Automatic annotation (TrEMBL):
Protein name in UniProt: JmjC domain-containing protein
Species, as recorded: Penicillium malachiteum
Coiled-coil spans in chain: none
Domain of life of the source: Eukaryota
Lineage: Eukaryota, Fungi, Dikarya, Ascomycota, Pezizomycotina
Domain spans labelled JmjC: 408-588
Pfam families the UniProt entry points to: Cupin_8 (PF13621)
Record-linked SUPFAM superfamilies: Clavaminate synthase-like (SSF51197)
Residue stretches of biased makeup (Basic and acidic residues): 376-393
Length: 591
């Protein structure tokens, strides 16, 4: 077994990781990579990382990057992080990437083990004191970046094991520093502050309320999901979650401090109110900086700089104390940032035990209704894919081989769908483990009107949100879907770069935020988006503990009223039942 665990000492864990990387299994996709690069993983991991990332970024969509390149980037990242630990903790007399260790890794691991036997269980980290600390930049950031970029295929045990070891070593180092009275209180956060600002925006009037129930039976859920098929809210569905109270409360800054290695774990955030807003962008940043700068808006401005120059003068801050004379502007700050649709529970597995999969995810469900955008898009995608497969089979077999019959577009599977807003690796969920995403942000974050190819149980853990929903049968000339749009990332740096187009047809052109916050401008909105204001809709305010069911294909718009955390569960238990429409039948469905 190649994984590492807390029963090992940190030096032993390091050796176990290096041995696993040096001896990949015979069926490991990494063997498909350039032998030169594979050979250099343990010799020059920096070079391998550069080459692998260049290749991954050249492929579009990102989900089409071959697994061998993800594996190569993952292993090189782990080696780079481990070499940083070996070098800075003086676990070896020589530089670990010296050529002599490439084919003779046993020399390095033997030396590490000998030093441990000589010095005993001495290994620990001092509390970090500087933003460029090697633990942060060389280890935590390196491992997290690999996790975000690749999903660390084949190395989850090693990477999560290293993070567990880091957590234990940092806590041990801090305890030693306190005992020896070397602990600097000025680097500690004000953990008495709640994780989220208590500021809120005005609660909108709910005009067409979504059905609300409490403690529904399984029979009720099955009937509603298969026959009624409209949104509903289960009040208090999440109240029993550990994330809602106690020491595991996700409203606690202390909880997040402890689970993000003092805020140094990296997370991807979206900059701007929504992904359709002008100036919107994406950035990978430290969780602690995201919390300070955006959840509490604690970025100092030039006018905030204090004339006080006393080096001992500090101001309290969430996730760390800061000198009043410091000023660290964020040039990418766009006023609002959102950790949106991120698989945080896979990145930090300890969070998984704090939530529960809602019962509705285990109930029978149907696929999208014929005639809806999700159904029609999947039908087109499936037909195109099968046409490509037939063309390939014809070219390989020659004209003498009989081709398969035309496919029935009704016989679709969820494999034909993907989330068009993101370059993701998502595969359809199943009832035992749906696709789980986390959403963390301040008030005023907006998810524009869009639809998804999954059923969605959207749970509000902390804070509150306003949600508006429209039928999947809303006419296109009134819902105003977008189309193909140019994806201009990196075009400025490389004008010769092949233009990239992204299918935004699951997102509406309509800006509901303008409509709901400026109703007096109704005539202007009608001119911009004819007929939209005539559409019927449902709306609700999700409070802490509530869970909203959004049926597959329903258009929905979400605006945060108070900073907080949401968790969404996407699933398809029995997707794409034998629907038929148009020339294929009468448009009926069956369980």
């Amino acid at each position: 077994m190649s994984g590492i665990h807390l029963g090992l000492s940190f030096p032993e864990a390091i050796c176990r990781v290096l041995e696993a990387i040096a001896n990949p299994s015979s069926d490991d996709p990494i063997h498909e990579c350039d032998p030169f690069l594979k050979k250099n993983i343990l010799q020059n991991p920096g070079l391998v990382l550069q080459r692998a990332e260049t290749h991954m970024r050249s492929v579009y969509p990102y989900k089409d990057v071959k697994m061998c390149w993800r594996r190569l980037f993952t292993d090189a990242s782990i080696v780079d992080a481990v070499f940083s630990i070996i070098t800075n903790c003086h676990l070896s007399e020589f530089e670990p990437w010296a050529r002599r260790y490439h084919d003779r890794l046993s020399l390095l691991t033997s030396e590490i083990k000998e030093r441990q036997e000589t010095h005993g269980d001495w290994f620990n980290f001092e509390p970090d004191r500087a933003p460029d600390d090697w633990i942060v930049k060389g280890v935590i950031h390196t491992l997290d970046y690999a996790l975000i970029m690749t999903g660390i295929p084949g190395r989850k045990r090693e990477v999560h094991g290293l993070f567990d070891q880091l957590q234990r070593a940092i806590e041990k180092g801090e305890a030693v520093a306190k005992a020896e009275e070397r602990f600097d209180p000025t680097i500690q956060p004000n953990l008495e502050l709640p994780m989220f600002s208590q500021a809120s925006v005005n609660r909108p009037e709910v005009k067409n309320p979504v059905l609300r129930v409490r403690n529904p039976s399984l029979d009720w859920l099955v009937n509603h999901l298969t026959n009624v098929r409209t949104p509903f809210v289960i009040e208090g569905e999440c109240e029993h979650w550990p994330a809602r109270s106690g020491e595991n409360s996700w409203a606690s800054s202390k909880f997040w401090w402890n689970h993000t290695l003092k805020g140094h774990r990296l997370v991807p955030v979206e900059l701007g109110k929504s992904y359709t807003a002008e100036g919107w962008g994406q950035q990978i940043t430290e969780f602690g900086k995201f919390a300070k700068w955006y959840l509490w808006d604690q970025v100092p401005t030039p006018s905030d700089r204090s004339p006080i120059t006393d080096p001992n003068d500090y101001s309290p801050s969430l996730f760390g104390w800061e000198k009043r004379t410091w000023w660290e502007p964020d040039l990418d700050k766009a006023g609002v940032a959102y950790l949106a649709q991120h698989d945080l529970l896979t990145q930090i597995p300890a969070l998984r035990k704090d939530i529960c999969i809602p019962d509705m995810c285990h109930a029978p469900t149907l696929g999208p209704e014929p005639g809806t955008p999700v159904y029609e898009k999947a039908k087109r995608d499936r037909a195109e894919e099968q046409a490509r497969q037939r063309a390939g089979a014809e070219a390989e077999a020659g004209p003498a081989e009989e081709l398969a019959a035309e496919p029935n577009p009704a016989e679709l599977t969820t494999e034909a769908t993907e989330e068009p807003d993101y370059d993701s690796d998502f595969t359809p969920g199943n009832p035992s483990e749906p696709i789980i995403n986390t959403w963390i942000g301040p008030e005023w974050t907006v998810t524009p009107l869009h639809h998804d190819p999954y059923h969605n149980a959207f749970c509000q853990v902390v804070g509150s949100k306003y949600v508006r929903l429209y039928s999947p049968h809303s006419p296109a000339d009134k819902i105003h879907p977008r189309g193909l749009e140019l994806f201009e990332e990196l075009l400025d740096e490389d004008p010769e770069r092949t233009p990239r187009w992204i299918d935004m047809s699951n997102t509406s052109l309509v800006n509901i935020e303008d409509i709901e916050t400026s109703p007096a401008e109704a005539e202007e909105w009608e001119n911009l988006w004819p007929g939209f204001q005539d559409l019927e809709y449902l709306d609700t305010v999700l409070e802490e503990g509530d869970c909203l069911y959004i049926p597959i294909g329903w258009w929905h718009y979400v605006r945060a009223l108070r900073a907080g955390v949401s968790v969404s569960f996407w699933w398809n238990k029995e997707p794409w039942k034998e629907y038929s429409d148009g020339e294929y039948g009468q448009g009926q469905s069956s369980e």
